[in-house]
Structure formats: C-alpha cells, structure tokens
Design brief:
This protein has a single domain, classed as ABC transporter involved in vitamin B12 uptake, BtuC, CATH 1.10.3470. The protein contains eleven helices and four strands, in the order ββααααββααααααα. The protein has helices spanning about 10-40, 45-65, 70-90, 100-120, 150-170, 170-180, 185-190, 195-215, 230-240, 245-265, 275-285, and strands spanning about 5, 5-10, 140, 145. A hairpin with a 4-residue loop joins strand 3 (about 140) and strand 4 (about 145). The N and C termini lie far apart (about 45 Å).
C-alpha cells in the first residue's frame, strides 16, 4: 500500500474528501459574504446568524407543516433572503457612505438579537434534522465509504458557487450591479433603480447563507450557536481570498477545507488554528489577498 509521510494513501485521500465537504460549506458562506462586501462595501457580521436561521427554518417547516428537505431547500433561501432584503431596506441602507464600522456594529447587534431569540425559543441543545430518504446510503469510493448526502453537498455547493460567479462576472446583470456600486449616480442617470439593485444584492447574499444552512442541517445539529462557530472562519477565508473577490472566496474556501482535513491527520491540535496561520502568511506576503485587486488591502 502506498504511503506518504508514513501514512497510508487511502487515509489521506479520505481526509481530503471530508475536508472538501467542510470546504463546500465555507465556500457558500464566504461567497455570500464576498458578494455583499464586494458590491455593497458592508462587513456583514450577521452572515453566520442567517446561516443558523436557514437551518432552523428548515427544521421548523418540517415540524410544523411536514414540509420535507427539498421544499425547504427552495423555500427557506427565498424567505430568509426576503427578510435580509427588508433589513437592508429599513436599517442598513442608512449607513451607506459612512465608516464601515457602523455597518459591522449594526450587523453584530442583529447577531445578538437573532441568536438570543432562537436560544430563548428553542434552547441550546441541538435539534436533529433527517437526511432526505433519496440521499440515504453510502457510496464506495474505493479508498473510503462516503455517505451519499455528503456527495450531494459537494455537488450542490459547487453548482451554487459557479452559478453565482458566472452571474456576477459574465452577465449583463453582474456588470450593472458592479456599475451601480462603483458609479451609482451615473448608473441612476440611465434609468436603473440603484437602491433596488442594492437590496436585491444583499438579499441574494443572505439567501446563499440560508441555502448553506439548509445543506448543513442534516449534518450538523441545528442549534442557535452553529453560525457563530463558522463566521470567524468565513471572515478569514474572505480576507485570504481577497475582500470582495468572488472567485477568491470559492477557491480559498475549498483549499482551506482540504488543508484543515490534512492537518487533522498530521497534527489534530492545530486544525482549528491553521486557517489563521495561513491568513497571517498571506497578509504578510500579499496584503490585498490572493485574488484581491490593487488598493483593496
């Protein structure tokens, strides 16, 4: 059996695949965060809280209406995205043009409200959410046995990331969004409703967080603190990839997931801190991030 650094190759390959699953969650979350910052210049600290809200909404739908996983995967991102759009339209919009610290403080306050509300209503213990029947079972990859649901998570997350990147970077709508944030007055003179575009952008970023929450619900126990456990990692990923870079967030998230998985094999105690070591090294060598534009440091 082939070995690398004294460890069997199947063990390393299996850990890389498990890390890729985590990387897919990071990718969808960091993607929404990068979209919001890149187009709105808002540091959305509430992103992890909306991830938690998405998972809880899927659980609530199942236990109150009997709606299954596939219905939740469609309805929850739409509903949570609308709530995010309402938050942007009523509160966040008042902070555009001010120091970014005000947006960070407002969204951090929203985190406290959302997490506190769900903690009071449902407690702190995790709530199980079943894997859909069509995705139960396992697949034998030769070097490991992987649950079908995790294979679905990888495919769904990559599809969402690629679709978002294509929409922003390769379509006329994406070009209009970028123009609306960089030159709002000029864009408005062409008859384009810039405030509505900004609201839709924020709502779309929040919908991505809720989508990731529904994907994570059958893997992670649904609880009020599940978002706060990930948001710091997601912020680090966005910084490493380059603030506002969609492609940078996707590539960095997948890479960090794999690095975390391998670190658990070689030195498990460092698996929770390796991302911050990577962030420090990247900022020392390239302050604007791996894919950041000049002047974005």
């Amino acid at each position: 059996m082939s070995e690398i650094f004294g460890l069997p190759l199947p063990v390393l390959a299996g850990q890389m695949v498990l890390g890729l699953v985590n990387g897919c969650f990071y990718a969808v979350l960091s993607l929404g965060l990068a979209v919001i910052f890149g187009l709105l210049r808002i540091v959305n600290f509430a992103h992890g809280a909306f991830f938690m809200v998405g998972a809880f909404c899927a659980w609530i739908l199942q236990n109150t209406t009997g709606a299954g996983y596939w219905a939740a995967l469609l309805l929850v991102p739409l509903g949570v995205g609308l709530a995010g759009g309402l938050f942007e339209r009523t509160l966040l919009r008042r902070l555009y043009g001010l120091d970014p610290i005000y947006g960070l403080l407002l969204t951090f306050g929203l985190v406290l409200v959302l997490e506190g509300g769900f903690r009071v209503a449902y407690g702190t213990s995790g709530r199980p959410y079943p894997v859909p029947e069509s995705l139960r079972g396992v697949a034998d990859l030769g070097f490991m046995v992987l649950p079908l649901y995790r294979i679905w998570v990888i495919g769904a997350a990559l599809a969402a990331c690629l679709a978002t990147w294509w929409l922003i970077e390769r379509t006329r709508l994406g070009a209009t969004l970028r123009a609306a944030t960089e030159k709002p007055a000029l864009t408005q003179s062409f008859g384009i409703d810039v405030p509505r575009l900004l609201t839709l952008t924020y709502a779309a970023g929040i919908a991505l967080a809720a989508f990731a929450g529904v994907l994570a619900a059958p893997i992670l126990h649904v609880n009020s603190g599940m978002g706060s456990n990930l948001v710091i990692i997601v912020f680090a990923i966005v910084v490493i990839g380059g603030m506002g870079s969609v492609l940078g967030s996707i590539v960095t998230a997948l890479g960090i997931g794999v690095i975390e998985g391998l670190t658990k094999v070689f030195y498990s105690e460092a698996s929770t801190t390796v991302i911050f070591v990577v962030m420090v090294l990247v900022l020392l060598l390239r302050p604007r991030g791996l894919f950041g534009r000049e002047g974005a440091a």
